[in-house]
Amino acid sequence: MTIQKPDPIVIFDTTLRDGEQSPGASMTLDEKVQIANLLDEMGVDVIEAGFPIASDGDFEAVSEIARQVKNSVVAGLARAIPADIARAAEAVRHARRPRIHTFVSTSPIHLTHQMKKTEDQVIDIIEATVAQARGLVDDVEWSAMDATRTPIAYLKRCVEVAIRCGATTINLPDTVGYATPSEYRAMFEAMRDVPGADGVIFSTHTHDDLGLAVANSLAGIEGGARQVECTINGLGERAGNAALEEIVMAIKTRGDALPYSTRIETTHLTRASKLVSMASGFQVQYNKAIVGANAFAHESGIHQDGMLKHAETYEIMRPEDVGVHATSLVMGKHSGRHAFRQKLEEMGLELGDNALQDAFRRFKELADRKKHVYDEDILALVEDQFTEEHERARVMSLTVIAGTGGPQKAILVMDVDGKHITAEATGSGPVDAVFNAVKKILPHEAKLALYQVHAVTAGTDAQAEVSVRLSQDGRIESGRSADVDTLVASAKAYVAAVNKMMARRGQHAQALHATL
Q1: Same domain, 56 and 204
Q2: 113 burial via Cβ count (<10 Å: 0-12, 13-18, 19+)
Q3: Domain residues for 363?
Q4: pTM (2 decimals)?
Q5: How far apart are CA 32 and CA 50, in angstroms?
Q6: What's the mean pLDDT in 126-135?
Q7: Does residue 245 contact residue 232 with C-beta atoms inside 8 Å?
Q8: Is residue 1 part of a domain?
C-alpha cells in the first residue's frame, strides 16, 4: 500500500513587516537582522522583511536581511504603485531568492472610500503593476487587500489577471479579521476554476479581530491554500495576525485531521517567541498557546496527579518539541557560570561572551537580593540587558522619599550620552515623582498611555516587571524593565520608552543641551 505524503505548506513569516506595524512594536536594524537569521535557521520558507518604500530605515533593513539570509525567500512589500515596486526590487536584489509582494484593494468599501477607483480601473492597475514586478524578479506575490469582503465574481476576475501577468503566489487576505472559517475555506475553493489557478500557490493571511485568525488559516489550507502568512506570537496590527507557532504545532500535533507538513524546526519556537518579545517590547500573555509561560504549567491537583502518572493525560504536546524544558533548575547565589550558561541554553537564549559576562554579573546581583532565581527572573534580566544595549540614556541610581506625609520626592541620576546628570522632582506619588525626574533630564511632551506592573514570580522578593507606553503625535513607543524594586523598574521602563521616542526624532542632542 502506498502511503501518501502530507502536502507541504509554505510558511511565510511577516513578523518584520506586519508584526512591526503593531503600534509601539518598532524594532532596530540589529534586532530585525537577528530575528531574520533565526527565522531562516528554523526553516521559515519566506521572510517578509519589510516595506521598503515606507522609510530609509525599512529599505536598509530589507536590504541587509536580503544580504544575510541563506535559505529563505526574502520578500519586500509594495503597493500597486510603480515607485513602490521599483524600490522593493532594489531592496531585495541581493537576496539569493528575492520576491516582490504587491497588493491592491479589491472590496467595494475600499474602492469607494479609500481608493476612489472603479473595478475596471483596479483591473488595469493589477495588470500593469504585476507585469512590472515580474519584469524585475521571477517570484511575484499578488494580494487582494480585503479579499473576504470582495464579491467572488470580481475577486476571480482580479486573480485571473494577476496570474496572467506573472504572479506566482496569490494571497487572499482576511485583512480586517471579518471572515468565519467556513467562509474563508469556501473562498479558496471558489478559486479552483480560475484559469491558471493550478499553476500558482494560493496563500492565507488572516487577522485576529474576532479571535479566528488561526482557525481561518487552517480552513484556508483545507480550501486549497498552500502558503500561510503568519507572525511570531501573533504580533500584528490591531488584534494581531495568525500566530506562526500555533499553526505549525496544530499541523504537527493533528496530522490525523490536518494531513500537511512544514519545514519548521519546532524546537526553535520558544526561542523565537522570546526574541521577538524582547525586540518588540510586547510581552507574551501567560496563557498564550504554545509559547506562554503557563502553556505547560499545571497547578490543579487533579492535573498534577494525572501528569505524574502519564504526561499525555493533560498535555497533547511535549514541551521539548517547542523548545521548553520540562524540568526547571532553580538557580541561586551559589550557582556558577557554567550552570548559568547551561540554563540560558535550556531557555533558548544565546549570548556572546561579553553579553554572557554582563548577564552573569546581573544574575549574581539579583541572587544576592532574593532567595531563588527562576527562569522568568533570568529571562527578565536578559531582556533588561538587551533593552539597555540599545539605549543612549540609562538610569544610574534612584532615591525615592515616600510616605503619608508627602509630597513624594525622587532623586535620579542618569547617564545620557556618557554624561551623568542628576535631577530632583516631586509628584503626587512616588511613581509620578520618578517620571517627573526623568522629564527634567529628558524633556518631552509625550503622554503616558499605559503603566502596568506585575510580579515576574511569586513571593515578596519577586521582581516587578513594569511596562510603559507613551503616546505623542499619533506615535506610540513602549518600554519594559524588571527589578526587585518596583520604582527602579518603573524608571528604567519609562526611560526606555522615552529613549525610543526621542531617538526617532533625533532629539538626544537637544535634550542633553537642555539639561546642561
Answers
A1: yes
A2: exposed
A3: 328-387
A4: 0.74
A5: 10
A6: 98
A7: yes
A8: no
